[in-house]
Amino acid sequence: MEKLGAQFPLISVSMIIPILGSLFVLLLPERFTKGVSFLSTGISFFVAVCSLMFFDFSKGERVQFYEQYPIIPELGINLSLGLDGLSMLMYLLTALVSFVAVLWSVRDRQIDHRIKEYFLCFLLTETFLIGVFSSWDLIVFYVFYELTLVPMLFVIGIWGYKLRLYSAYKFFIYIFISSLFLLLGIVSLAVQHYKLFGRFSFSYFDLMNNDYSLWLGVFLFMLFFVAFAVKTPIVPFHTWLPDAHGEAPTAGSVVLAAILLKMGTYALFRFNIGLFPKVVVFLMPLLVLWGIFSIVMASWFTISQNNLKRFVAYSSVSHMGFVVTGMFLLNLEGFRASIVEMFAHGLTSASLFMIAGFIYNRLHSFNMDALKGSAKFMPAFAIITVITAYSSMGLPGGSSFWGKFLTVLSAREYTTQLALLVIAGAFFSAVYVLYFMKVLFLDAKEESRLVHFTDIRGFKLSAFLLLLIPMFMVGLLPSLFFNIFDMSARKLLLSVMHKLIGG
Amino acid sequence: MELKDLIGSIELPKITLMLPELIVLITGFLLFTIDLVSKKANHKLYIGISLVGYFIAVLYIALNPYLLGSTFYGLYVRDYFSSFLQFFMILLTIFVLAFTYRYYRQKLSLYREFYYILSFALVSAMFLASSYNLITLYVALEGVSISFYILTALLRGDFNAKEGAFKYLILGGLSVALASYGAAFMYIYAGSLDLQKILTYSGQNKDLLILGLVFFLIGFAIKIGAVPFHFWLPDAYQGAPTPITAYMASVGKLAFFAPVVRIMPLIQEHFSYAWVITVGIISATTMLYGNLVALVQKDVKRLLAYSSIAHSGYILAGISVAKAIGLKAVLYFLIAYALMGAGSFLLLALLERHPQWQNKMEEFSGLRFSMPWIAVSFMIFMFSLLGVPPSVGFVGKALVFTALSFDRLWWLAFIMILATGISTGYYVRLVVLTFMKDSSRSIKVESSLAEKVVLFVLTLSLVILGAVPIIIWNFASQSADILFKR
């Protein structure tokens, strides 16, 4: 894979901005905390948007803004950062959602203690996440991947709801243990490289040249897959998610759902497909069926939830099922569906969690029964909810439409039966959204409690708008986003096809 | 042989090679003499003298890293490996010394012998790191062990201390006996006391060699607390005054592992299988048992003792890969654990000075509010012990995984994943208690400047050496390469 050097160390700068912000948060008195974090996430969002201007879309398959600094040359470990089309999209999402999360937290009434630490956690998370999406050295990737756990452990454990300690534990233990397999997989790849080429390397570009016997490949693939299947999550491994997402404070859930889950799917793309094309082709039927199973099961779980946050959390699992299914269908439509769904889900899930948080501020409950008919009294809130929910359901014009539509299309390229299965999954995921809408709008409830509610205003409204605008853009102008990642998706597909024909 | 030849063959000891040991030894005797002649103990003087001696020794090593050679007819070897380990041994002793004064004043048991016994332990430990000869190893092993027995029982009135020291004494005696028994077998096999000659000798009776090697290894396995020879360790670590526990967990670990690491390059093809199986199985049981038992501990000092056992297991996993990559991983991990072990126990020693502190796990709740910086430092120690990047603990584990993958020891790698997974339970619980639980009591301990500096340096070193591992890696790599070239 070709690399384009950086005239300007864009990525390190965008990683350093939040760190600088967190230093200021640490050193300045508490009344400056919110301002500083607002500014630093805002600036890094601005930098991310500006970086689009310097990004060469026609060479999206190449790694641009590439920087490299040695860590252990003898073992071939370098801090190598860069963005190709896929990571560019994720980088944009990270900057956007981090900004939105901070914007939301500025006025979140729940965050009333240990404010400095709270914003510190979010700023650090942003840095680590940019590191995850831009690193091209597997050890460096792993370092950032693990580091995101630490601030999130604190966010869930300190500012979460009732079961916060339990959920924080569970979150950390699940992800930490599963990623130990990833670590073993990564070092095994480097050792394999040593045995083939006589030197250690953890660089993605070098490891792509590795060659394995099929069963060793399957073994290594599984080491990677376990870690990312827990992170994504795919159904039997999902049990940490409803707890973590359900108990985290609003902004924590936003970051967890919108970006942290994408780390799993991004890594599946980058590593499982990019490094093991032969194995992916071999295991494809199993993985696709697994993805569809995940969609259907998670949709059923979702319908049976009574807690609004857990409801949204489970719906995330079902969306991730679409991402996984599309990805392992191994054709261009599938890849496009999967990547655009990753972005779209980042927007809708963030918005849904903010809706849940907003309702909690008013009702002090996540109980779905408590919010019956509440939409009537808060028009702006109602509009935002409708847009988000239908986007999430996959109505044409909504952001998730392209993900679902293209998945069906790509499944159709194999057999009609497969496409029908995917459609069944899409059907179930529509059922729970409609159920949610019914509760919110159609059910009657004693109205006296709800009359005096104030609507969404100010900071929170702007946070929602920041998500709704790109949501519409994805729905109505999808080619804008396809442009960003299309070249790298094609390149990836080409490498898979090459193996398919060659091997 | 003519007299002339005999005189000619006499080799003058090269004093410059072993100057660091001599300096530490002289410091010890100086302290001993002052203690004999003076009536009243002046602890600040003792600490001052020790510090001066240790600083000179550590500077000498740091300024002459390429001092290589052997003297006393090969009884003593100075190479890169020994200089590297000795540097950290002396440094960690200095760190421990910073914590002792206030600790003992608080516990009202400031015995004067402490200072010179510490020196004698240190000098023996240094000799353990720099010899291939079974006699030297034996003497040095006894030196460290006897010093440790005394240091463990230093709180004379304390029942736990006596119990721990007694257990240590009995099992330690057994260990030395087994090691010397193994040495005897090896001597019968090769007719030499030099480990290099023994292991490269191609004699008739290979079984004798393997038998000897296994006994020798088991002797050291007792000392490093490998399961099933670990029974003394939790009691001794718990009973010993906490700065001494820190000393045993850092300098002691380095010293007892050094000879085992030193023979790694000498493992020959024909018995490498026996080596892998023996060390691998001991390693697997050690890490599983250590972590499982640590999981149910309520006493933090005991918990950290079991975690120390578990870390011995991880290091042994690296040792089972008797190749250059394994040796490098082990060296890195050894230094990493020495820093983490010293730091976590020293932090506990600081907290123990609070009159109501009893080392119970729940007492950590609310620490975030009463002593925020100590809490942050504690968190970094815990995450490093767990292996969260970018800490030395993580780099160590990653390197051991690399070594295991190199030899395709998948089963051991999976056991290590399992063991680390188990350890998540208690390390994260401690972090959660420290940061996320409120408590009505607030523990606040005044600390001296030296203690603050030492804790800060240790905490920072975990992160810096983990994020920029090349600092240790270069030394580890070079010492391993030199050992393999010999």
Shape of chain A: globular
Helicity of chain B, as a percent range: over 70%
Strand order in the sheet with the most strands of chain A: 1-2-3
Tally of individual helices of chain B: 20
* Intertermini distance of chain B: 31 Å
Derived structural class of chain B: mainly alpha
The succession of helices and strands of chain B, N to C, reads HHHEEHHHHHHHHHHHHHHHHH
Based on the model shown, name its key terms.
heterodimer, A: 503 residues, mainly alpha, three-stranded mixed beta sheet, 19 helices, 74% helix, B: 486 residues, two-stranded antiparallel sheet, 2 strands, globular
Task: Give the helices and strands, then pairings.
The complex is a heterodimer of chains A (503) and B (486).
Chain A: E1 3-5, H1 10-27, H2 33-54, E2 63-72, E3 77-83, H3 85-106, H4 115-134, H5 138-147, H6 149-159, H7 164-197, H8 204-207, H9 214-231, H10 240-247, H11 250-275, H12 277-303, H13 308-328, H14 332-363, H15 379-393, H16 400-412, H17 416-442, H18 458-476, H19 478-502
Parallel strand pairs in A: 1-2
Antiparallel strand pairs in A: 2-3
Chain B: H1 3-9, H2 19-37, H3 43-63, E1 69-71, E2 76-78, H4 80-107, H5 113-128, H6 134-152, H7 159-190, H8 195-200, H9 206-224, H10 232-239, H11 242-262, H12 269-295, H13 300-319, H14 324-352, H15 367-370, H16 372-386, H17 392-406, H18 410-436, H19 449-467, H20 470-485
Describe this structure in words.
Chain A has 503 residues and is mainly alpha-helical. Chain A is 74% helix and 4% strand. The model of chain A has no long low-confidence stretch (mean pLDDT 89). With 486 residues, chain B is mainly α. Helices cover 76% and strands 1% of the residues of chain B. The model of chain B has no long low-confidence stretch (mean pLDDT 90). Chains A and B meet through strand 2, helix 5, helix 6 and helix 7 of A and helix 17, helix 18 and helix 20 of B.
Summarize the structure.
The complex is a heterodimer of chains A (503) and B (486). Chain A has 503 residues and is mainly alpha-helical.
